[in-house]
Amino acid sequence: MQRDRTFEKHDLVDRCLATFVEAGTLDLSLDQLANKVGLSKRMLVHYFGRREIIEQEAMTRLEEQLRKQFAPESFPRGVALKHVVLSLWDQTTAPDRRGVLLLVMDVCRRAWSGSARAKAFYQEQQRLWVKLLMRFLPDRLMVEELLQVFQGAAVAYLITGDRKAGRRGLMRSLAGEHKAPKGVISRRR
Q: How many CB atoms are located within 10 Å of the residue 41 CB?
């Protein structure tokens, strides 16, 4: 009986996460969430205890999924950094992944607002991206700069819906075409 309940809860976390992804936010009422996952609000509370537990478990499941998707082993050694970054861009901004990207941004918004769990999520995602990119670009400072460009492009994509502009920006960044404004000394000399 305990095993069935564990399986049910695992499945329920997956359904809750899918609902959050579909909405692009964690900010759903318990009524909305229960309706979408096909349970009563009372049963959600029975399984999880509190709404915060549902969110925490959904964030954990999202972390697991992202860890698999962006694992360094996903790309063979010797692949060009440009290929890796553009592949990551295409995966991240694929139309069917928009809800995931919105949900990640929603978790980041919570981190900005002081949520310890959301900050931990953000820090883990940063660590994983740095680990992945360091495999193809062994300069940590450049990896962190590239990651900042990528994140900025992702925000712009969410606002404008234009995937191509972010791709072009990433390609210029990878090609070293980002030149410092006149009078500013570039660190990449």
A: 15
